[in-house]
Specification:
By secondary structure, the chain is an alpha/beta fold. The chain has twelve helices and 14 strands.
Length: 336
């Protein structure tokens, strides 16, 4: 029997992908698509001057306004903008014309974002996967599975130590900020308490601290910038946050990489016995790993749309087998 990967190599099942935004995440998607045997990159769409973009491959670059011309040529758009201001506007707009995947990660606003995207996608007959990545995304799925298996217990999520792209982007949007990196740091005592089976009742502030390294524009009001960061709702106001003002040279020398990771833990009981479920990630590159998750889900989105499943979806609604380029027969034989 001809395998799914054999058919893909013959060009029968190629998924045509578009990238919206060519920052760290967009560049990561470009790499992920190049590794996918069933995908090809059709175009990169940017708000910048397309002539200023030098993609790694030979993919053509277009202005964002040109995307509407590719409705029939692109199977799925992977949206690589920021959650603060880009995705709330872009995802509903693109879902009205394309199947889409985004990485919207402002947890408190996900229900609102879902509703807006769902309305646009249903009307257009498109499929839109929102809040895809490792958290929200893979960690969300692991929280669901662990709680379902151990209903009597407590769930804990720890992020870091690592650079948060979304939080760093939120700082960069503040007036007077030239560049920034934000590190999320788990509190070691909190992790050990969970692993020891103590089932602690931890507040948001007790689980993590946040360190911000900020390059301010010349003449900027540093006290105002620090205050805006520390009191920013949904990002920093619930955490002990430290702001360090540094030079652009220090940022380049000491904070140029984008590592991240974390843990999802569920401590629970079945009768008289105790159990601990732990899922962890250690990432050299947060954007490249996130991009790889987006790309796998883009494959699933196309398949779901082909089956007539229109509207918004989250990681909870996506069949696991649809993430793979392998056929169901291959998956049952090699992975089950």
């Amino acid at each position: 029997t001809e395998s799914g990967s054999d058919r893909i190599r013959k060009g029968d099942l190629m998924i045509k992908v578009g990238i919206v935004g060519y920052g760290n995440l967009g560049k990561g998607v470009e790499k992920a698509v190049s590794q996918a045997c069933d995908m090809e990159l059709t175009g990169i769409f940017t708000r910048r001057d397309p002539a200023s973009i030098q993609p790694a491959g030979m993919t053509p670059v277009y202005g964002l306004e040109d995307a509407v011309q590719f409705e029939k040529d692109i199977d799925v758009m992977i949206l690589c903008g920021g959650s603060a201001t880009d995705l709330p506007q872009q995802t509903p707009e693109f879902a009205a014309r394309f199947n889409v995947v985004d990485s919207f990660d402002t947890h408190a606003r996900i229900p609102e974002h879902f509703d807006r995207v769902n309305q646009a996608a249903v009307k257009a007959g498109k499929t839109a996967a929102i809040s895809i990545g490792w958290d929200p995304g893979l960690f969300s799925l692991n929280r669901l599975i662990a709680e379902s298996i151990l209903p009597e217990g407590n769930s804990y999520t720890f992020w870091g130590r690592g650079v948060s792209q979304g939080h760093s982007d939120a700082i960069r949007r503040i007036e007077g900020v030239a560049d920034a990196r934000q590190y999320t740091i788990p509190v070691p005592e909190a992790i050990e308490s969970v692993r020891n089976g103590e089932n602690p009742d931890l507040s948001t502030r007790q689980k993590h601290t946040r360190d911000c390294y900020v390059v301010a524009e010349e003449g900027a009001d540093l006290e105002r910038i620090e205050s805006e960061i520390i009191h920013m709702p949904n990002y920093f106001s619930d955490y002990d946050t430290t702001v360090h003002f540094i030079t652009k040279e220090e940022l380049a020398d000491n904070h140029s990489s984008l590592p991240h990771g974390g843990f999802v833990m569920r401590s629970g009981t079945t009768g008289d016995n105790s159990h601990l479920i732990e899922y962890s990630l250690k990432l050299d590159s947060n954007p490249e790993f996130t991009a790889s998750v987006l790309t796998a889900v883009a494959r699933a989105v196309v398949r779901m749309n082909q089956e007539g499943l229109a509207g918004a979806r989250t990681i909870f609604d996506i069949p696991a087998g649809y993430l793979s380029w392998k056929s169901p027969e291959e998956l049952r034989k090699s992975m089950l």
